[in-house]
Fold these 2 entries.
Entry 1:
Amino acid sequence: MYNPEIETMDREEIASLQLERLKATVKRCEEKVPFYRKKLRDAGVSWKDIKALDDVEKLPFTTKSDLRDNYPFGMFAVPTRDIVRIHASSGTTGQPTVVGYTARDIDVWSELMARSIVVGMGEKTDIIQVAYGYGLFTGGLGFHYGVERLGASAIPISGGNTKRQIRVMVDLGTTILCCTPSYALFMAETAAEMGVDFKQLKLKSGIFGAEPWSDQMRDKVERLLNLSAFDIYGLSEVMGPGVSIECEQKKGLHIFEDAFLAEIINPESGKRLAVGEQGELVFTTLNKEGLPLLRYRTRDITSLDDTPCECGRTHVRMRRVRGRTDDMLIIRGVNVFPSQIESVLMEIEGVSPHYQLIVDREAGLDILEVQVEVSEEMFSDRIQGLEEWQDVIRGEIQSYLGIGVKVILVEPRSLARSEGKAVRVVDNREV
Ligand code: DLL
């Protein structure tokens, strides 16, 4: 049952718990998953070689393509008769991947989600609107089970039907909202159109994640929805939401280290990096039955922080994910994450938080176009001076990124809104 003490254990205790669980996971993979048996044999390593936590480095990596190659159930460590739930990753390209959970996995996940919600200010008395998509995506059901485990009240509204979301929030007195940060912004806009004032609502916190968002975007969301916004991270392969979450300090996301062992590697060389260095996040699951994973490469870029946190939790923190290796745009040789551009845009008064990046190649040269909506007030005030203003914004982005970009200011409400994960980049170079 719900056991927050595990989050304040001392570091040595955490390490010994992790070591014991790591050994058991490697043993399980070796014995139950032919894919891992072969991979471990090829790497010349066995669970018996795991004597210290650092021995994790001896293990081979697992990648998304391993899951694809073994689609659908080839990496499961139990027969499908023991699987009680199947989800799929939200990947938009290539073959899909599916993930499976035993009854015990669902139990552990519910527990981790209940703990996450508590970190995000949740209590038994809360009314929690779960506006992540229900279905193959892990967001909706992941949160739902966590809310029920905590004993709070779940409103399983799923994503979409935004006017109804607002009515439900007003009528039922929602106290915690759970959805993607981009959908939260869309809700703010819809509420304003409906004449609903967030100051009159009972919302106290929002647990937002599933996509990258900047600190500047957080300020906007907090201001517009009049709540405290927490960043939650997770991925279907490793479990779903509830791998890590920010505490009230909002200085990084505490990883639930009783369930996941995190490492940061150099994405090119695969070498492990020291705490504090930025690289690709890699997870080994520590107590999963259905789909245990060894050194799963997330492609998410971040760094770890093991300094003590003022909240008293001892679990290591990861910095907010600024993007994925595969979302990183390389524009004329410069690496650009959409979230970097977002943070510049959010600092400029009069631009709305709605933007899109279009990448093209003209005469062999990469062109990055930043389309950003002007806020309603600015649009009517400055219709004459839009061009100069475009220049100002272009200047800000250029001086931050060090590369030339094209800025196009577009009318309020002209860019597509998201009810789930926002699509920030349209890359026309591949087609
Ligand atoms: O997005 C699980 C989730 C649901 C997390 C609800 C949080 C809330 P996938 O669809 O498999 O799972 O996508 C996982 O989304 O590898 C990251 O690239 C990205 N991502 C998830 N959370 C965050 C976050 C869910 N807080 C992929 N910040 C991950 C930045 C995030 N990126």
Entry 2:
Amino acid sequence: MPKVKAKKEKNQPGAKAVQTLRGFKDILPAEQPYWSYIRKLAESFAKGYGFSVIEPPILEEAGLFARAIGKQTDIVEKEMFSFVDQGEGAVVLRPEATASIARAYITHGMVSLPQPVKLYYWGPMFRRERPQSGRQRQFHQFGFEILGDSSPVIDAQIIALVHNFYQQIGLEQFSLQVNSLGCPNCRQIYVKELTNYYRSKRRLLCEDCKQRLAKNPLRLLDCKKPSCQFLKAEAPQIIDWLDDDCKNHFMKVVEYLDELNISYKLNPQLVRGLDYYTRTVFEVWPKEVKEGAQSALAGGGRYDGLIELLGGRDTPAAGAAIGVERTISQLKQQEKQIPLETAPDVFLAQIGDQAKIKALLLFEQLRQEDIQAAENFAKDSLKIQLELANKLKVKYALILGQKEVMDGTILIRDMESGVQEVVDFKKTVLELKKKLARLNGGAV
Ligand code: HAM
């Protein structure tokens, strides 16, 4: 019988290490100060502006996004992570959350709540795009949606909120681009005009734009290729094709922005990559937009037809989403200092078995008293433990050795001066609190 060669086991030493998928990233501990800084601020904005938190699921029926975002968009055509689930049919990892929020508004009968309904969310989104700088397949957004009101002041409030967020995180260089896409009626007339213009220039278009001309002509205005940019400059502008209602709505929005002293740039070529928008659209760009780079930090607008399109009542709405990764990357590029995570208050060191047990119990007590203690219970050497305490820059170390266990005491060591004080073990928390309060200039 021929010998069968044993297959090399995957987990043999030397086997290739498992990697993250392309476009997916670990968010490592060193990055977390940025994440918690942004998240805390986002939550405080949500609270301050009166938004309630909603957490829609990450997996949704594929049809939701095809209907909401549009079958002819890049996101739906090429970028969805979709699969067929037994029993549930075609499902997708959400590429964005606005469609889910509109779905949730219908699912939970939010039309019967006092209007408008203001919802805030935070979470991962998934788009199967070609990964590059600033473009990942899993990225995070937080967003604000106001559902159930059509007045232009809502659009202005959303824009102001996003603008104020970027101001408050200390990003000095960003630009706010605004435009109106009109309602489906005026847009239809405009798209006809745009199509006529581009048809006459068809041979000058890039290959992608030739396709866009046939499928989704508005997207022609979004092409980043220099040859198409040149054609774009001469293209008809939607602003000239808005009907009176849409024009008045837009005038009101920019009037509010002026009153709020918010600087913005009117950009007649801003079209956005999702089909659900009506009237106001906007994006936040970093001041320096690199050629061809994926750069919008945030985007949003009004989407008056979406809820009805998904089977609900005719309900106007507007909102915005902020991209977390791109925002963090801007903070880094602009060398913005962010608040550091708080350092532990104290280091708890122990030597010997009995001391270890006592230290474990004390650690729990400290935690319950809201005193943040660092430790390394796995180490027995006092020298190593104090070195770690130094590295963590704690002001005090608590030291429990055999002698202290026998005497019912503990040492409180001032890490800066090296002075050690013997304290009754039962009074550890009390004494420590006094010291920490003195340190922070608070009452003892
Ligand atoms: P969006 O413009 O597709 O809008 O995405 C909003 C933000 O998400 C972008 O400005 C960007 O910062 C970030 N983003 C998008 N794709 C990626 C990617 N592949 N990698 C990294 N970051 C990315 C929406 O999603 C709409 N739902 C916004 C909205 C809310 N409109 C109304 N309400």
